[in-house]
Amino acid sequence: MEIVIDGYNLIGSEHGLHGALEHKRNWLVQQLAQYQKIKRFGVTVVFDGWRSGQTREVAEKSDGISVIYSRLGEKADSVIVRMAREKSAGAVVVSSDREIRNAVERSGAVAVSANEFNQILHALNERDRDEDDELRDSRTAKRGNPRRLSKAEHRRSEKLKKLKL
């Protein structure tokens, strides 16, 4: 499974997009690196470079995380949708942008909101800070809705379960 993340969308949902963005990008990559070490999923975070980026798309690796900056004149949204189409059902896209979510779901990928993924990252931070018995019990507790879900919601639910710690 490959997780493709709308970087500024995830940062904005947690910290807002004002202030030192470079610091916030680095913080996010560090959080994702911790998550990736535990879950072993491929993780790619995409940032906008459309206003002040380079003339070509820039891809780099940082702590095991693929970091992509869209090229000048291209929004990160386009890169995310393209990647989701290439990976189709093997991709989980993290974004709260309705247009991105609709486009990637049409290609067979699963969309997860930035808030949902932030909760997963918070659980990682809590786990690192406090490995008490209550937390371990809550992670193994059975959950579920007795009503049958639609196929799309079932696929989404299964992917979310895999993302969680």
Structural account:
With 165 residues, this protein is of the alpha/beta class. The protein has one domain: Rossmann fold, CATH 3.40.50. It is built from 7 helices and 6 strands, in the order βααβββαβαβααα. It has a 6-stranded mixed sheet, sandwiched between helices. β5, α4 and β6 form a beta-alpha-beta unit. α1 packs across α5. The relative contact order is 0.16. The mean pLDDT is 85.
Hey, roughly how much beta strand do the residues contain? Answer: 15-25%
Per DSSP E runs of 2 or more residues, the count of β-strands stands at: 6
Q: H/E series, N to C? A: EHHEEEHEHEHHH
| Biggest pleated sheet | 6 strands, mixed
Here the CATH topology equals Rossmann fold
The rounded distance between the terminal residues' Cα atoms is: 15 Å
Structural class by SSE content: alpha/beta
Secondary-structure blueprint:
Layout: E1 2-6, H1 7-14, H2 21-39, E2 42-47, E3 58-62, E4 65-69, H3 76-87, E5 91-94, H4 98-106, E6 110-112, H5 114-129, H6 133-140, H7 151-163
Parallel strand pairs: 1-2, 1-5, 2-4, 5-6
Antiparallel strand pairs: 3-4
